[in-house]
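[job 4417] fold queue: 2 targets
>>> target A
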Amino acid sequence: MPTENVEFAGAQGRTLAARFDRPDRTPRATALLVHCFGLGETSQAAARIGRALADSGVAVLGFAYAGRGDRSRDVPETADIAAAARWLEGRCRPPALLIGHSLGGSAVLAAASDVASAKAVAVIGAPADPARRPGLSVPTGPDPGARLKSAIGRLRRPLLILHSPVDQEVGIANASEIFMAARHPRSFISLDTADHLLARVEDADYAAQVIAAWAGRYLPQAPATAADDGAVRVAETGAGKFQVEVSGRSWRMLADEPPDVGGLGSGPSPYELLASALGACTTMTLRLYAERKGWPLERSRVAVRHEKIAGQTPPDMFDRRIALEGPLDDDQTARLMEIAGRCPVHRTLESGARVVTGALESAPARGAQGDSHFRAMDSECRDADRATGNGEVGNGEVGSPPVRQSK
């Protein structure tokens, strides 16, 4: 699960630190987590909630509520939440789930109606009246608690309330007040013996698992696994200008363009993917050949760079640099460098290929060809030895070890 420490511009020009947890695949939704005042971006509860949601396919931006300790401005600082939602929209997609811990929960309740993308809201240990928290600034006006309850009544989103009956910082009565002010669908979960900060790992994990399971009902479902028909599928994610999800039989990844041309920089560009295909095929072919020969190749490394050179034919050039590690002699090293030129992707790039285009739904895809690359590598390795007449051929089976011919 990728995790980044990021910053975004909050209210009043403040720069806020945040933690961005992303799933290993394209996120099906995003969430905004405003956690407990004073804990910073490394709150244990926030981190575990972020991981649990990322495991379920939801990307989470978590940041600490920026309380001021004075009475000079409205708090909860809903402008920070709006700014965080804009950051998520620019980086991935707008938040579908809002989560708040402690005073962050009050802030989320106050701001939720203004976050149009939000489909559901969850709060943990949230005060029903921020004015009851000593040392924290409160909303201006005669009755901040009444203002918050009015916002809860206008929420019009599913609401999950998690609270400990033995919370010494924010009493359980606050959960009752929030529950009564809310409209259905509303749910309450008791955190039993947990403290306000969810300091025990088991309490933080329980809250994280409950929120992830509950939110799943209101968030988009994960896309179906790609069919095993040998096709690679590419689809726009809706995040940024160019971001796409690339998926195969058992894998998913993102492709994108760099920020300087309008992308998010969230994945390799198409030419970087093409260069990586050449590099991957080269290392695989070297490994297959070295193992067939019984040579001590410990590891190969390949760097590939693509560029277009005006005035040359063809204009596209792939600059490939290879490093071979292990106690290879000079002849073995030279031979492996020759074999690199026989990798199937190298052959395809040099000889060219046909591209046939049609409607995706117009005809069934061809049968699965998952081993076609391996078969091409195996054939190239065999042909390389036949061409040099070194006396080694396979026994006819794909992947079989070489057999010494009698002379």
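>>> target B
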Amino acid sequence: MVTDTSFCRNPNYHIYSDTIDTLDLGFMARVWEGVIRGVLGLDASDEGNGE
């Protein structure tokens, strides 16, 4: 889970009406694109060297 505020964005979160048609799939795709870009942008050589 990237955030813990799903219940704020979807009033159906984890109840009987929490179905695929109540999800904002475009938003979900944009979140995953951001996560993937963030992970791919990590570079261990930059870690703590202060340069």
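[job 4417] complete. Note on B: The CA atoms of residues 7 and 15 lie 10 Å apart.
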